TrEMBL record:
InterPro entries, sorted: DUF3492, PelF-like
SUPFAM superfamilies per the UniProt record, alphabetical: UDP-Glycosyltransferase/glycogen phosphorylase
Organism from which the protein derives: Streptomyces luteosporeus
One Pfam family here: DUF3492
Name by which UniProt lists this protein: D-inositol 3-phosphate glycosyltransferase
Domain named DUF3492: residues: 14-276
Length: 505
């Protein structure tokens, strides 16, 4: 699995990448970014702590020799070993757990989150946290707490069944606290949320510098995703409270936060991150690896690349295509990308929508493609229909290939495109259809736009710029004058971040 490489230079820092649902066990934009980062720095020792699904996931990437170890932390695999506390030890645990739950449920107690969170981390290290959360006492404690009259959850009259569901979700979500955290080097979380747990614990216990990179806004995506979850509102409120306070704790503890675009930076400032500890680093591609795509298809074709997932907004794209097809009857829509486990129902719903709109025969789910460049070459216009994004690789790759693009105005999309593509509101099929039709009907404009897009990538978004920026950051954080995280009071930024997240979408 590991190819032979020279060992890292003695002065080079060691880096532990913290991932969730991505590298090195799956493909996708953030996984590509991680692989590029690792491959581009053979002089640096890397380790990976990966939050996964079941623990049965195999490696999806060929790891170079300077990736020294991979520790997988499955959320839904067999429960971590350990024994539940009893008697006086159980009462002490429940006291600490009550503080933690109140921090999630009651804004007046949010300032207790950091202390109670790290107390639970100690229980996780001792092997008692997860058995305790699987016990009846933990669920009954929650059932009593969130029915207190002054809490917002009480209005929904949560039941013991709700408490059991919420406690089970918490037990799984907190499993990354069982990680063997590094005392040396740097931890680098490549997203917010559960991936940050080992980094926060390492920072608290050992002072290990914690670096946080956000490609998308994890908290915003949880707010969007929980709309479709089958749980009652009190369960959702508890879990979103966890994600909200984890975001704030991550911003508070990070020595540096590196958003992938200016849009993310605004969220991070809302969360209380001092501006001097935020440094924007754009994603980059190698323009030689994504050369001009060559001749366009003869049949008018819209192409799309990504994973088949609700956050990618494929319903909007299919509805827009139906409007395009009404005016260009020969048009086709080709969708390239895999369907992650658990996403099969969404793909089936998209196929049913295409059939309902009368365009089922013209919409093709191509599945994973061996060479992603084929996906961009397949279209006269490359589409991006997401409802949430960071700084999407598929967009800058398509731009490097010289294809005209139509994209939704989310995340860092407008920063990527500039004047070299068309940008439309998310969830607006009519606007997307108009933009696609404008480009399909004007080959000269498509050509000009594609040439300008490739030039923009070469000037601003190359892989070499990205790697050089992070190499410098790693050395800065590991040096004798490394920046320290600032002790921002945890409770102060909560309302601003809560309001921003509550209005997302």
């Amino acid at each position: 699995m590991h190819g032979p490489t020279a060992g890292p230079a003695s002065a080079a820092p060691s880096v532990t990448l913290l991932t969730e649902g991505t590298y090195p066990h799956s493909h996708g934009g953030v996984s590509v970014w991680c692989d590029q980062l690792v491959q581009g720095m053979p002089d640096i020792d890397f380790r990976v702590i990966a939050v996964t699904g079941t623990g049965r996931e195999s490696l999806a990437w060929q790891l170079p020799g300077h990736v020294r170890a991979v520790q997988a932390l499955p959320l839904w695999g067999p429960p971590p070993p350990g024994r539940a506390p009893r008697g006086r030890a159980l009462r002490r645990f429940l006291t600490a757990y009550e503080q933690f739950l109140l921090a999630l449920l009651d804004p007046a107690h949010a300032h207790h989150f950091s202390r109670s969170f790290h107390r639970l981390a100690e229980y996780a290290s001792g092997g008692t946290l997860f058995p305790a959360l699987r016990g009846e006492a933990a669920a009954r404690l929650l059932a009593r707490l969130w029915n207190r009259p002054h809490l917002a959850t009480a209005a929904a009259r949560p039941t013991l069944h709700d408490a059991l569901a919420a406690t089970d979700l918490l037990e799984h979500a907190l499993r990354p606290l069982a990680a063997e955290v590094p005392a040396e080097g740097i931890t680098h979380a490549v997203s917010g949320g559960l991936a940050t747990l080992p980094g926060l614990v390492a920072h608290h216990r050992h002072g290990t510098p914690f670096l946080l990179t956000e490609h998308g806004i994890y908290l915003r995506e949880r707010y969007l995703g929980f709309r479709a979850e089958p749980y009652r509102w009190p369960v959702k409120a508890l879990m979103l409270g966890l994600f909200r306070l984890l975001a704030i704790e991550g911003y508070r503890c990070a020595a540096l936060v590196t958003p992938g675009n200016r849009y993310n930076r605004r969220w991070e400032e809302h969360g209380g991150t001092p501006p001097e500890r935020i440094r924007t680093v754009y994603n980059g591609v190698d323009p030689t690896a994504f050369p001009p795509a060559g001749p366009e298809p003869e049949v008018p074709t819209l192409s799309w690349a990504g994973r088949v997932d609700p956050i990618k907004g494929l319903e909007t794209l299919i509805r827009a295509f139906a409007l395009v097809r009404a005016e260009v009857p020969e048009a086709r829509l080709r969708l390239f990308g895999g369907t992650p486990r658990g996403g099969e129902g969404y793909r089936t719903a998209c196929e049913a929508l295409a059939a309902e709109l009368g365009v089922g025969g013209a919409v093709v789910f191509e599945g994973r493609v061996e060479d992603i460049r084929d996906a961009y070459a397949a279209g006269n216009v490359v589409m991006l229909s997401s409802i949430s994004e960071g700084f999407p690789f598929t967009l800058i790759e398509a731009m490097s290939c010289g294809r005209a693009t139509v994209s939704t105005d989310v995340g860092g999309v407008r920063e990527a495109v500039g004047e070299c593509g068309l940008v439309v509101p998310p969830r607006d099929p009519k606007a997307m259809a108009r933009a696609a039709l404008d480009l399909l009907r004007d080959p000269e404009r498509r050509a000009r736009m594609g040439e300008a897009a490739r030039l923009r990538v070469i000037e601003q978004f190359t892989l070499r710029q990205t790697i050089d920026a992070f190499r410098a950051i790693y050395h800065d954080l590991s040096g004798p004058n490394r920046p320290e995280s600032v002790g921002v009071p945890v409770h102060e930024p909560v309302p601003a971040l809560a309001m921003a997240a509550g209005g997302a979408g």
